[in-house]
């Protein structure tokens, strides 16, 4: 175990040349540097956030849904059938003609009756509009609050206005309480999403979002351990700037305020394009690739960090293309902006300060 720990925490991977863990272990009085052990505090805080979410959805979001007359739809339940239930859970939720014919012979049911059963059974697993409204209201509230906190904190930070400050005296950069709370809160929120995925209604993108949350947690933790908090805080703030707008558009859609929904979606799209295709590459990548090279020089974890950010930029381009394509098709068909399959096309967009 000691050999594995020594291999994982290899100084030549994590730290610049001529810097050791011992140099960071004993800072001057009143000075604090990030430590891997700090990340453990995110786990109990994540449970607290999860508890707050349950309280918020039941005591705040649900009454708001009632005020807006968003009710839980009562879908017709499929009649119990062990054979069809086994096929539904183990084989397919949308059987093809071959499966339908075989089930028809086995049960002596009409094919249309079997199709109706599967349609009703699929509808049972779909979250109601009220459930989705409560979930989106919680996400909207958190994203808005953390964005306001982040922008207020960064507004007073030198590296907000001069990104070269992200690398001066690196890695001997003091961990302030504001930066610590910002990072740990973001990390705790995504840990809470990992917990809630197993209690929420299962969606088609369950596995994708699970991997997405796991990658986000890994990236936030990685930037914390090697003290790239300054540039990491800029990345988180950029991504948070559009997340709450997407959730706000969803809320308007669920409440059937279509004009407001369209407006919020347009604003979301504009901010998404500006932050992900302009600010991120020309501000963030410029400092992580070129300014940092000039000031501190490359080392192994530097290469990994920048590779991950470049992959992130590639995802930005792909998601921007999907947004533009879906919006274009909606305009050409004369449909409302927000009436698309959000779960399949949009779900990866809001989640992650360092990956999505």
UniProtKB/TrEMBL annotation:
Per the record, the pathway is: Lipid metabolism; sphingolipid metabolism; Sphingolipid metabolism
Q: Which SUPFAM superfamilies match?
A: Homeodomain-like
Entry's Gene Ontology molecular function annotations: DNA binding; sphingosine N-acyltransferase activity
Which GO cellular component does the record give, naming just one?
nucleus
Query: Residue limits of the TLC domain?
Result: 131-332
Source species of the chain:
Cyprinus carpio carpio
Q: Which SMART domains match?
A: TLC
Residues the UniProt record assigns to the DNA-binding region sit at 86-129
Give the PROSITE patterns listed for this entry: HOMEOBOX_2, TLC
This chain's protein is named Ceramide synthase 5
Q: How does it sit in the membrane?
A: Multi-pass membrane protein
Catalyzed reactions: sphinganine + octadecanoyl-CoA = N-(octadecanoyl)-sphinganine + CoA + H(+)
A Pfam family (short name) is Homeodomain
Where does the record say this protein resides? Answer: Endoplasmic reticulum membrane; Nucleus
Per its UniProt entry, which superkingdom is the organism in?
A: Eukaryota
Stretches assigned to the Homeobox domain: 84-128
User: Is Glycoprotein found in the keyword set?
Assistant: no
The record's Gene Ontology biological-process terms are: ceramide biosynthetic process
């Amino acid at each position: 175990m000691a050999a594995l720990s020594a291999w994982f925490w290899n100084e030549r991977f994590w730290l610049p040349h001529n810097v050791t863990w011992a140099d960071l272990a004993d800072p001057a009085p009143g000075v604090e540097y990030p430590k891997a052990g700090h990340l453990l505090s995110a786990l109990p805080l994540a449970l607290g956030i999860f508890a707050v979410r349950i309280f918020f959805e039941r005591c705040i979001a649900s009454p708001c849904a009632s005020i807006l007359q968003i009710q839980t739809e009562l879908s017709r339940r499929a009649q119990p059938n062990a054979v069809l239930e086994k096929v539904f859970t183990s084989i397919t939720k949308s059987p093809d003609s071959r499966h339908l014919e075989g089930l028809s012979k086995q049960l002596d049911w009409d094919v249309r009756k079997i199709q109706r059963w599967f349609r009703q059974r699929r509808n049972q697993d779909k979250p109601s509009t009220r459930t989705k409204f409560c979930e989106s209201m919680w996400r909207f509230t958190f994203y808005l609050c953390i964005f306001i906190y982040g922008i207020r904190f960064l507004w007073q930070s030198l590296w907000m206005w001069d990104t070269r400050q992200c690398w001066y005296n690196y890695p001997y950069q003091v961990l302030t309480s504001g930066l610590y709370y910002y990072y740990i809160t973001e990390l705790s929120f995504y840990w809470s999403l990992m917990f809630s995925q197993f209690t929420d209604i299962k969606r088609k993108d369950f596995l994708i979002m699970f991997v997405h949350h796991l990658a986000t947690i890994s990236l936030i933790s990685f930037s914390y351990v090697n003290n790239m908090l300054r540039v990491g805080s800029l990345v988180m703030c950029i991504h948070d700037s559009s997340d709450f707008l997407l959730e706000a558009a969803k809320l308007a859609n669920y409440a059937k305020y279509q004009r407001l929904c369209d407006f919020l979606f347009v604003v979301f799209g504009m901010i998404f394009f500006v932050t992900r295709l302009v600010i991120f590459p020309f501000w963030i990548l410029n400092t992580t690739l070129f300014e940092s090279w000039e000031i501190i020089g490359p080392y192994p974890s530097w290469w990994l960090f920048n590779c991950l950010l470049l992959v992130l930029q590639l995802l930005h381009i792909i998601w921007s293309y999907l947004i533009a394509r879906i919006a274009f098709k909606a305009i050409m068909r004369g449909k409302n902006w927000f009436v698309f399959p959000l779960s399949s096309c949009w779900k990866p967009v809001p989640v992650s300060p360092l990956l999505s």
